[in-house]
Specification:
The complex is a heterodimer.
Chain A (H helix, E strand, L loop, with lengths): L3 E7 L4 E6 L4 E5 H6 L4 H4 L15 E7 L3 E6 L8 E2 H13 L8
Antiparallel strand pairs in A: 1-2, 2-3, 4-5, 5-6
Chain B lengths: L3 H8 L17 E7 L2 E6 L6 H16 L7 E5 L23 E8 L7 H14 L4 E5 L7 H5 L16 E3 L2 E5 L14 H13 L6 E7 L6 H9 L4 E6 L3 H16 L4 E6 L4 E2 L6 E2 L14 E4 L4 H9 L3 H4 L4 H20 L1
Parallel strand pairs in B: 2-3, 4-8, 4-9, 5-7, 5-8, 9-10, 10-13
Antiparallel strand pairs in B: 1-2, 6-7, 11-12
Helix pairs in contact in B: 3-10, 5-6
The chains are: A alpha+beta, B alpha/beta.
Amino acid sequence: MPKPLLVTPIDEERVVRILWDDDRVSDYPFDYLRGWCPCAVCQGHGGERRFVHVEKPQLVSIGTVGNYALNPRWSDGHETGIYTFEYLRSLGDQLESQDSDPVKG
Amino acid sequence: MISAQEVREHLKRIPYPGSRRDIVSLGLVGEIVTRANDVIVHLRPSSASDEVLRHLTGRIVALLSGVPGIGQVTVHGGRARTMGEQPSPVAPPPQQPLPGVRRVIAVASGKGGVGKSTVAVILALALKALGNRVGILDADIYGPSIPLMMGTEATPRAGQDKKIYPVEKYGVRLISMGFFLDDKSPVIWRGPIVMGIVRQFLRDVLWGELDYLVVDLPPGTGDAALTLAQEIPLSGGVIVTTPQDVALLDVSRGIAMFRQVNVPILGVIENMSYYVCPHCGEREDIFGHGGAKKTGLEILGEIPIVEDVRVGGDSGTPLVARHPDHPVAQIFRQIAQRLVEKTAVLQ
């Protein structure tokens, strides 16, 4: 499983830029990342993952969880999302495959 | 006078360590200020380690100083910051491995009663016997048994800033919940408290310089084990089991836990593997044989059922300390050697 080599939030562009150790680079817009939060508060129990709309989410910080995930903290206090590297890669694939709606996909 | 844009173009020649991508396209370079001939480069907060930032700062200064027309070069930032009322995105704090601790090996089991703590203690002493500086973190906070097995009831000394010093015995540093409980009080705690204590053990113990920290996890795949995997980058996990099929069923749960949190599994130690009759010398496979092989993982060693191992634990003088030349002590030294090799590759 590829791991992030460098994680850089860029305020001006409202994205988190991730450099992976296989040299792939993906930009994750704040709205997109917040919307696809995988936590149980956002997604409930089971069923299909859905996009949670949040007005202009602001990233406060983003930390690593052990060897396997990233955990962002948002300005609305939400911080329960643990994004596994695997999940982030799949979000990256989804972002690249869609040019129609960069936010919801 | 040079423009910020020109400086940015120059910086595109610096790749990020371990990648072909340059630091400008990766977004690491933030604001650039030029004043007369002087240049100030601000790096964005990111997950880059201090070491990488020092390296990059050196490269930026060296590169720009060589450009005609540039005078003084200053590099700022890179670290997390908080400014004004509007919190700005800050980067992940780079995962803080325990300061001074080079490798952390977790000893786990899918179920209780397989001799996990006994194995952890003897293994730690075997690593020490190979010339390493070793610590033991008894994370089995519900049933901390390591103080008894190591034969110490000392109370850890307090240091400054609410830090604690580990207890030392047989040349191994040791911290355990057992030091803070009296013998009879049962530990009845909910998950969040357990997590808080494990965290405190990780952050507030002054381990000093260690080559290996052996962590004795609680049995099963619960809170303490998960917290450990989340809080520190474990170098690897070792799973202790007994040979029968029922134990193996639980081992697969332990394997799944390590896999889920991306911790490499170094191998399996089969404890109580067989019994050698002290009278006739015949070997008997009480719990069956070869079960651990079914896991598909490397078998690090097979530990026979030997009274000396049990006596060592109960009397607080673990086997390797008590009988360094015992055949089972030799098995442990081989396991320790193998772990040293395997974790060296991982780093």
